[in-house]
Amino acid sequence: MSLDTAPAPQPTLVGRSGRDRWRSLRLLARNPQGIIGLVLVVLVVITAVGAPYFGLPSPTKQSLLETFMPPMWAEGGSDAHVLGTDHLGRDVLSRIVYGTRISVMVALGAAIAAAIFGVIMGVMAGYYGGRVDTFIMRVVDVQLAFPLLLLSLAVIAVLGPSITNLIIVMAITSWVTYARLVRGLSLSLRQREFVQASIALGATDWRTIFRHMLPNVYPTIVAIFTFEVARNLLIEAALSFLGLGVQPPTPTWGRMLADGRNYMMIAQWVITYPGMAIMLSVLGINMLGDAIRDIVDVKL
Fold first, then answer.
1. 2.120.10.30, 3.40.50.1360, 3.40.640.10, 1.10.3720.10: CATH of 66-299
2. How much is the pLDDT for 44?
3. Cys-Cys crosslink for 126: which of 46, 164, 183, 185, Cβ 3.0 to 4.6 Å?
4. Is the pTM higher than 0.85?
5. How far is CA 27 from CA 151, 217, 289, in A?
């Protein structure tokens, strides 16, 4: 397409109609890995949202008369504690279910904050180029020079452990992933005819960015987003395990692993089931992310 034959800029390449969305759903439905991942993710979301409505015991209620009660199918187990109890007599299943809410909230909150900031920085670097690009990319390079977990530990130690600070720290350490990738895509899109036509016809920079560039990078952003959520789940669990995440008595999966590591030889269930919750959640998100990436690759 040339400027001589186009009275207006060409519409964006991605999402021009609902047919693209239906095509994406069909591709996902044909991917067994994606279906399994989607089912696991839906189960995690339902567990996080519906935790107060499952009729479970309080996750912080202690009973020293019921410490280390095994799961109900084992000898000495009880229907009142399906997955047994920990060293303080707290219900393991209840703590896993309520811990899902914290883990999902922190992982999603950090991923959303990182995506918004990282995408804006990446688009600005790719669209404006020059000094703007150089400055943003040098900031990215400096941050990538630090080990992410070590940087997280240092910032948490300064700010103090809390849910808000945990989300901030995880967002700070992960926005660079979005910025680098979106910057590369934006450099390519900046030279496309429909973007050049929009600029030539007098559209503002922000209109060109939001109307013509962002719609063409969002499928890739969605794919990255899923993997970042999975990574954030692992980071939250690691920080909570080290005592720098969400503080007691709020239940989290990482905190449950930390509390149960000294009793794993006499009460394996106190760490087995929280560990399985982390594994299945991360596995489901990664499998769904792989399926989304395959769909994006087909479109590209």
1. 1.10.3720.10
2. 92
3. 183
4. no
5. 39, 19, 13
